Amino acid sequence: MTLQIESRTPALDDAGHPVEELVLNVGPSHPSTHGVGRMIVHLDGDVVVKVTPVIGYLHRGIEKMAENRTYLQIVPLTDRLDYVGSMYANWAYCRAVERLAGIRVPERAEYLRVIVCELQRIASHMMSIGSSAADTGAFSMFIYTFDVREGVVELFENLCGSRLTYNYVRPGGVSKDVPEGWTDDVLAFTGSLGPRLDELDRLFFGNTITRGRLKGVGVLSPEDAVAWGASGPAVRGSGVNWDLRQHRAYSVYPRMEFDVVVGERGDAYDRARVRLLECYESAKIIEQCIAQMRAGAIMTEGLPRLLAPPVGEAYDHIESARGSLGVYLVSDGSERPYRMKVRSPAFCNLALLPLLAVGHTLPDLVVILGSLDPVFGEVDR
Amino acid sequence: MNGFVWGLIVGLAAGLLIAIAALIGVWWERKVAAKIQMRLGPQEAGPAGLLQTLADTIKLVLKEDITPNQADEPIFRFAPFLVFVPCAAALAVVPFATGWAPFNIASSALFFLAVPALSVIGILLAGWSSRNTYASIGGVRGAAQMISYELPRTLSVLSLCLLAGSISTVGIRDAWRWWWIPLTAVGFLVYFIASIAELNRGPFDLPEAESELVAGYFADYSGIRWAIFMMVEYGGMVAASLFGAALFFGGGLGLPGALGAVVFVILACTLATVMIWVKWTFPRMRPDQLMGLAWKVLTPMALVQLLVVGAVIAWL
Prior knowledge:
The structure holds 2 protein chains of 2 kinds.
Chain A: E1 22-26, E2 38-44, E3 47-54, H1 62-65, H2 74-79, H3 86-101, H4 107-135, H5 139-160, E4 169-170, E5 173-174, H6 182-205, H7 208-214, H8 222-227, H9 233-236, H10 244-247, H11 268-292, E6 312-319, E7 324-331, E8 337-343, H12 345-350, H13 353-357, H14 362-372, H15 376-380
Helix pairs in contact in A: 3-4, 4-5, 4-11, 4-14, 5-6, 6-11, 11-14
Chain B: H1 3-36, H2 52-62, H3 73-90, H4 108-114, H5 119-129, H6 133-164, H7 169-174, H8 180-183, H9 185-198, H10 210-213, H11 223-248, H12 257-279, H13 287-315
């Protein structure tokens, strides 16, 4: 499926003749398409006159596969949606199931979910900033952000045994309680995070070349951001204060004190920097959660092995690292969902690419794509 | 000795020097980059991984030398040598010792500035003959970039020619005085930045910009021809460092024999290490910013340097 933006007039040279365009195929195997993205780029000299994202190279039919699995068996499928933020898809799906089946989740499980998702946000944003840096050629920065991410991944490994696909959040709670000393490890991580982020901020965002490369590139106006359904750092970078964690506060977020980071100009620099600053806020939330969390059950008592929610439909969404991640479920009363649909923020944000990239040069195109932070597992599903 | 035979010997020696420089340079770059990135770098092959590059070279030589179907075959196969030869030729006029360079020609400073610039033809042809959009863009970018950075680089060396009253590299080195360092600091900065840009190294590696052009003008090359392009990068780095150390820092002038040579080599290695450090720290610039830097910043800086040097000479 391709997305066409046809409302453009062909570029004309000084004599009024249409300019011969250079067609460049970028991807699906290319160093900076963030996975298997593909773009057909029309260039006039070095300037992009048209860009067509081509998606579907990572389509595995997860939504269709879900129709043949029980509600519990679908959780590992959701891991494979946004593979740098598996916890979010787990949680968004579980919230939809819980809404559908009317399950109440124990408080400790809610705290654990918030902790892992905020840790996941740090990991995901580090990945995004790192690959944005690698897109501009600062490869060492990529390693530094991955070093921070590694801290999160190790915490997750200790918690649930996996480094990438966690299968941790389950309908009714979470799969395991924290191992001994884990919360101390988390606090040690968040405690050391501030200085490390400060260093990354100075190294990358303080660099003159970075500023030259990212500032003023791919400017997204607040009106366009809202009209095109952008969410997450893509919409907040444009100065729109919209965060489900505050404006549709779910789980234990109403008890948390944190700021929603918003940018000013809506360019690639602001989008990337919003991600960095959100990591500080995530650390604050994690520390509050650990302070407030009390011992207790981590899974709802008396859940049947095979969930069979009553006939009906449910939609629930959470704020993932990429934006509003929603899962829509339809139940026909059996133990398998009749239909599952994922509202993918990565997909919606990727749709902005033609809007943002036209008029910029080829190197900017790569930066703009990186600033939208697409994860093709979630785009293609 | 017959000039032709001497030329052959120097040519072979230059080729050998570049090969050795590439062998050690790649290892050193990987080690420095690893240090910057909190890694270990190569360490299995030989002591501290010193033989890693050798192993890689053997692998590259054994690999199939692919010529794409669409490529213009003769030009495609010849282009790497067009890039390599000018780079090696530059080494013929390095003032290795007091009063001595392999080829002591009267206008060797011009030779050193002009001849490596010829490799732009090889880059352009490599990009063009690949019949690959990425390679073409890379080749054109390379041409634009190298021609732009010729100017500030030449102007910065011109200050030295003025100070020494000679356009021979040997003459400049022999006339070198310590107070040239503060006097030509700006010129050296221009020379250093322009040299990195000439070599297409980060943060100016636009012709081979990995994140946009995959590998730019040598995207379609494989095996030994690819290795030649890589060797040129290190050969160019050696040449730029040697000339920088010899012309701007005197290259250990006045120190007795071996000590002078050691100081010269250390100076050159320091410059090369700074180049590596810069590459692994900074992001890449955009083509228009790169041109802006050359024409709006470096060229005026080099001109001001030239004026200052001229004023100092008039005052002396």
